[in-house]
Fold these 3 entries.
Entry 1:
Amino acid sequence: MRAIPEDSGFDWRRVGAAAGATLAALILLGMVLLVAMSNRARDQALERERHAYDVTLLVRTVDATLARSEAALGRFVLDEDRQVSGPIYANEWRLAGTQISQLERLVRNDPVQISRVRQVRELYTARGAQLTPAARAAANGEGEGGLVLFFIVSKGREGPGPALRAKLSEIASSEREVLRNSMEQTEFFSAQADRLTDYLSWLGVVLGGAAILLGFLAVQSIRQNLIARREAETLEHAVALRTQELSAANQALLTEAEEREAAEAQLRQIQKMEAVGQLTGGIAHDFNNMLAVVVGGIDLARRRLGGPKREVMQHLNNAMDGATRAASLTRRLLSFARAEPLLPAPVQPAELISGLTDLLDRTLGERISVKVQANGQWPIFVDPHQLENALLNLAVNGRDAMDGEGVITIATSDVALHEGEVAGLPAGDYVRIAVADTGIGMTEEVQRRAFEPFFTTKEVGKGTGLGLSQIFGFARQSGGEVAIDSAVGVGTVVSLYLPRGQAQAAEVRMHPAMSQPSRGDLSARSGARILLVEDDPRVRGATVEALEDLDYQPVACANAEEALSAFEEREFDLVISDVIMPGMTGPELIRNLKRRFPEVAVLFVTGYVGEGEGDDLKGYELLRKPFTVGALEDAVAAALGRAEVRAA
């Protein structure tokens, strides 16, 4: 038998090392290819997501543009400002047509969507044909100026207008379905890429162990053959290259993860914009309804000026009610957009709810029974007006949940809470005001999103999604909390927890725009000299007439510069200034005047308190637009009285 040479074992190790390196390289190459394929599939899914985002956003933009155009036409036919409203209507309507053309180009590769967009184009043309007679009549001053034609077209629940909005909603719904499927594919391929990354990491560990083993074999082989050592060194170099490639692949995955986070942030922004678009449509619908009441009431009253006074007053009261509702909606939007200063006062919850019962009965209707269970005795220190609004909102929500028929229970109780027993409230004494209904209840998903801004389960036009978020903000501002206990098919209990006598007095005294006059404690000086600074000529003229009716001596200015010049000519007892004006703002004007005339009384009038203006208004009376003559009288008297107290 022939003896086996000593170097035959070395040949076996060399072959094994070469085979192992080749196998590792093939596995690594396969893993890299799988990662690349997963990333490519994910990128394609992301591209479909972006396309769906673009289509959805453009559909909402078309809807909002059409709403703005019709709103401008409404102002045009109402003869508010034809030189402005007419061009706005025409420009917005043409812009909507351009946006529909953009939508056609965007969905040109989708046969189903392009068919829907073409139907939108036909409905857009038909809707324009409906609105054109009203616009033409308003422009030519024919008949009622297009008012009747506009109301006939805008009140219709069928025809091109509703069909156009429905078709836009259908396009958006289809794109949301595509978006949902694309997001699922993105998540699937991202998860697959993550798993492959883990496998690559383990492969790196295996390759590291193999490198150690091969190094050991190389040291053993140095004694036997120089060629074996060179092969071992080559293999070590190959392992180092593979490790570097793995590190680069990991870095690429991290970069792609950051890009995915950026895409998700963009998605959240688009969803917010979609919510704003839905809110805009709802507000436009509500304001059109309120304007219809106001315009209709005034028009009927004008037609019956020579008739019975009772009929004229009835129509005027209807118009005032519509204007009051519009002002209430505006205040709710402002309250949501920026926390308004509260007017806390000592309140007995049982007495407040008892005084609210008649209003609840009239608001909720005869089929809703309201039960009050006043078991608490502790007082609270909150804004009573805001608390009444919160309870009224909760009662209306309960009525809607019961489909207009059922029992609403409002109960008060005194509770001593432990730390963290209700949300994040600290331990202490609280008054619990619970509003319960026997309606359909809420699912867990609805309960989690109940306080989200713009979230609503009501139909479009019946809710803006601001009610519960406003209540949540009021409770938090008052140092309390809101809790929801609901079961599907059983009902819902919304509980307000308000601290017992823990609040601070308001630094800005607010006068609600439509409040009833309460002149018993106010001392007005008849014949006081008042300087009115208001940039809107219609508001300025109406306010001057109201002040003259109240036996004051008003002087009107259109801007701050005219007001400063007027003070150089004569002195005034009171300055009534708008807050937001072109050029110098109201607070800037008052700061300028106070340096020279520190004793002058001040009353601010505004429809919105902007960012950065709140501190400038502290210590002064503040009257909200729109306001009644009675509210103006109270605010003027309070401002003059505050100046007299300071002077004393």
Entry 2:
Amino acid sequence: MTRARQDRLLGLLLREPDWATAAVLADAIGVTPRSIRSYVTAVNARIPSGAAIESGPQGYRAGADAAAALRAVEAGTPRDRLHTLVRALLDAPDGIDVFETAERLHVSPATLDADLARVRGLLGGTELTLERSAARARLRGTEVAQRRLLSRLAHDEMESGSFDLAALRRTLGAESVGAQAFGPFKSDLVAELGALGYFVNEFGIGDVLMHIAIAADRVAHDRALERPEREAHGAQQQVVEIIARLGERHLDVRLGSGDLQHLASLVLTRVVAPGAETSAEQTRAGLDPDVEQAVREVVAQAASAFLVDIAHEDFIVRLALHVQNLRERAREQAWSRNPLTRSLKSAYPMIFEVAVSIASGLHTRLGIPLLDDEIAYIAMHVGGRLERSRRSDHLLTATIVCPGYYELHELLRSSVDRSLGQAIEVVGVETRVDPEWAAIDTDLVLTTIEPGVPGDRFVRIQPFLTDADIEHVQAAAGRLRRTRRLGRLRAELERYFSADAFVHGWSSDADEEGVIRSLGSLLVRQGVIDEDYVERTIQREQLSSTAFTDALAVPHALGMTATRTSIAIGIADPSIPWGEGRVQVVAMVAFSETDREAFQTVFEQFVEVFSERESVQRIVRRATDFAGFLDELVAVIDG
């Protein structure tokens, strides 16, 4: 548990560039500030010659060696022993002698028995069993099942799902494939897949590389997969030939037909998608009609429920292909990790929520069990579609004030369009030296002369645009967007809160379901929701944790069936466990059908407010009652 908490501390600091006090970190992890200080000492000891965590008057922050410390595994630790023990069991078809193994690992037989119990806990879903007879222990199961266990260990080693060859070598053993061979293998694989006209998913390729490394290692130990019943053909045969050729060239291993077809299937279902030149009709030709119809229905439902513009033919077809591949992965329990899962959930909660809705519909129609990483891939599809359909009227408008002198104003406008066209739209140019400042009604005014009236929307720039000018304009545009977003949020929130739907403090053994029922009962008492809504909120939580930041959870049901929109607030001080982390604020939201547009405003901006650590601490420390909570929330929103 201590190692896990140390790693959680490192993860928190790596995600937050600013300093954090021991008290703040203690709240986030659920320990005392004194424990945080001991964790910092232990983490820094992992990298004796470096700085994993820096200390200062303002607290702690991640150092240059933080990522390396997160990956560091100390020899002789329970984690290291576990991997050594699993490798020994996998490499010994007849099993291992428990007493000899304990002596080799320099532990007692009782400690090794405890380690074997941990191995048994890893076997769920792998179709492997651990047998113990007197002094011998052995694993029973197919080669595919044994590789699944190796895959699980390797995933546990790889922080946030990112491919890490060093971590993989810790799982397979130091004598397994090295970076000098594997780097060129990956580069050539990506190049050859691209030459066949595929887009390559760099986020998913790490999983495939891991399986290729496992296959190479197992084949080198005479543990190849059995020959398949059917020969490869078409696209699969093309990929088989690539992997076979690159395996011999870079890894010095000759893979059999069983391994080659298995790896080719992984490539085709995890890391490639049709290229830009492939038409929707060509893509549809390879789709299962049932999958396409299910995707079409859930996309239409999500588009209507969340008022998002995603019901486009190209989006539906490409998502259907992804879901078809996902169904194949689900059959093999071969899930893909996504290193962007946490950041997608916290930065784009609305997009992630649409993805959860789609995932729920697919689960109902196709029976696909979805994990957060798989939901995140759907969120990437949704986000890509929304980005392409985003309208230009989301841009801020601007007027340039540049007194006329030859073509100076024209050059300036050209420079602004070229450098800031993604952020603002210039709709007018004033060339008078004495314009009517009050009459200029655009969002921003970019002026080369001192403005005649004060205001945050006026930005001084040079006649010849500089890098500093660009940064100033971007900063002003960012402040204006944030002010507007939070202004809308304040107007909405004041309608939805009430003093009789506020709770301060829970017991240390509180869990998600208990907190949801506690807050839900307050909304039921108001007549806003019924008990069915509470149950559906619990079901939604089981699909994917609603802890969208390190401090805030927003439980809610997928259906907007409340009689009116209302929010029940709970403050936890100290923090309580939620999902894989801990939170200090829980906002149970009940939305009505008539407030679908408000859902987007409240959901995204509320999460934004609670993504700032200082804001969270200010609210939690001072909001001992409802009046204090509302005052502090408004103060934070107003800046």
Entry 3:
Amino acid sequence: MVGRDDELRRLRRLLDGSEPSIAMLGGEPGIGKSRLVQELFTGLPETVPVLDGQADPGTLSRPFEVLLDAIDSCHRSTELDPELLVVVTDASRSMIDRIQAGLEIVRLLTTPGPSVVVFEDLHWADSESVALFERIADLPGSRLLIGTYRPDEVTRRHPLADLLTRLERRYMVTNVRLERLNLAETSRFLKSVTGRPPAYRTALSLHNRTGGNPFFLEELIKANGDEDLDTLCDRPLPWNVAEALRRQLDDLDPTEKRIVEAAAVLGRKVPFDLLAAVTSHSEPELIDALRDLVRRGLMVETGDDEFSFRHALTREALVDEMLARQRRRLHELALETLLSTGSKDYALVAHHARGAGRYLDMVEAARRGLATYLAMGSPYQALQLAEMGLDELPDDVELLACGARAAWLAGLLDDAQELGRRWLAAAGTRGERADALRLLVRLSWEIGSSGSMQERAAELRAEIEPLDDGPAKAHAYAAIAQAYMLHDDTERAIEWADKAITLGEELGLPGVWLAGKVEKGSALVNFAAGVDDGIKLLNEAAQEAEQAGEWLLAARSLNNLYNLLPGGPADWAAALERMRTFAERAGFESLAVAAYFQGRARLAVQEGNLGGALAELESARRRDRGLLRTRNGIDYHGVFFAGLLLEAGELDRADTVIRGMAEATDTYTMLTQTSVPGLQFHLVARRGQTEQARELLRAVLDAVRVTGVTGRDFAHDIISAGLVGGLGVEELRPVAAAIDDPFFDDAWRWLADAQIAEAAGDHAGALAGYRRAVAEPSMLLPATKGSGHVGAARCLLALGDLDAARQHVRTAEPLLARWSGWRVAELSALRGRLGLGTPVAGDQALTPREREVAVLLAEGLTNAELARRLYISPRTAAVHVSNILSKLNLESRTQIAAWVKAGS
């Protein structure tokens, strides 16, 4: 049951009402309509009666067949008066009498109390069952009436078409349209079935192959048996799926059949002109044929003069049935057409060259396409071309180099490493080996192996030592500087960056001296005396890289710079948007998607907006989960996301994320070795599992001693959770003592020491620490600063200075206004002790109508749909939305949805 949570919630919400409700559930075959209905049934109490009738293709001529099938599904049917069934099935009776008898049957079987009536596949239903369905809506009582249907099979003459129009006119109908699974949902589906996450390329291949249709995915997996999921991409279609798809072609005339077969060979996206050339049809003839194929639902128009099969598997089933000579001839015709017109679609040229067996043309198209697709920010397309060429020339250095870089840009680190190693092995000169090592240095960092990165950097230094001062050595200087910068060896990073800048300028290589500036600036901002110079250097690098068209360097500069700019959140957000634009132009997925949304979430945290931060990370995980991208061996967003969920008190959700990180991490890196146990400790401590927390604390302190990684909010979070979890002061004191960063962590150290002092009963000492930590300027984030003021207020309360305590509480309120969870709970408790009452905020600040609007917004309704649902004007709906955003201090409808979900 993947990707249908919102739809299921909408149906369950309808069932909770006291009035009759109608839901029309539409979607293509295999999309999961029946599965969704069954999931709804699973969550119902046994006392709720259910009538579930199914129409079949042969029921069109059998009156009331859907009702009769529904009666058979109900355990109460034995209590019915047999005479009612006789009336319904007696063809000699008037239609009015038979419908009235049917309604009485439904009423008896579904009352008293709430009930569910489902008529499935109404597109096949007889007209009498359709008429009865409409009349059921008039019956009183708390009844949810659900109809499922396939929109593409409802013609204007079908009785269901008129029914849909009348229902919309007479009743408040909830229309639920099930769409295909996206790439992320396909990955989740595959993981839920197989128990392990699929590789990105496997998920992408199966998503493209099935179009995200759950039925087709399930059938492919069944046919695969116990074989590795990665082998599924190339396995033939199961016979039942292939036969079902081919049946769509049974009533095509010979001309349409030939057009469909040609389109199947031409690829996933078929240009109109190419199809016309291959089939030798005139434009009017082809337009008429395609219009009919689109009307039948066999093909869809995906763009101007471009067509695709509605189901990619239909194309596959057709190609599998064709003779090899027939396929090859069509490829040859397509290739000659593309070459004669000078087509720049190198991927399409290479595809048809391979299909035609013309491998030299294929390799030539691959070489040309690599540079083109990398330049336009399409690394995955470039990788596919490189691999196509490598099938013919497996040791070609140019193809290996471009393929490895493309795989890295696309975030496919395993593929990038494999191609990088092959590139290094095939390299014939020191310069070529140095180029390969440069990428392998970066890849070692990306996969979380700092030791391997240093080893590769040493290899690179040895490789370039005998070289003259040429481009290979200049690029290597920049790569070595980056390795030192990533390893926090600031002095050496600056030394090698200066070498790269000097040699890059001498040789006129902007990509080198700009890279040197990026590495030097990134190193400088890591220590106090260099922050200003680092910011200046990164700013210069970003501007100059943009002017030079060095998009990747421009994106990296801004990614390392945006939250250090002096202008504040607005300027930071603008810089983050520029970073994303540059990353997209470079095709660098990890910055364009994962880092971008992580950056937006961090900005929300810096503004004290916990709901906004969670919404951003949820958006990131929806978009990026399909890539199953990992960094440093774990879920890219996992540590941050789990930490925010713990902040919000969503312990069960945090548990799920933490378990996923722990299971997916085979070898802990410096980050995960401390962060994952720290999150586990926080979770069990918040749950009151003291002994388990005590064991995990020992693991955390051991990890800190080994890695030296601690400081900032890490110690504060551990101490906060440990105190709630019942651990003693002496057990937690080593955590505060472990903070080791002399510049960034002063405020955090004072905060941690104050927490320990307060827990030890030293309220005067704790008060001094809290006040010092929150004094301006402070490195603390708004929510943490709010907790510092709350701590100071507690100490003042204990010391008897109530007025000063109240002042700290008032200072904390705006800092925590858009936060939630344990920090806000502490503030609320202290307000009560100080006689300040509870401020109106959050849900309590909304009117009943605004709360209703917020729930509907979470369903994804537009202002126009809100207006129709609530019988208000679209302008009034917009006012409600604006008021909700203002009162909750949120910025988008997505954040409202996240807020509703968090509070549901």
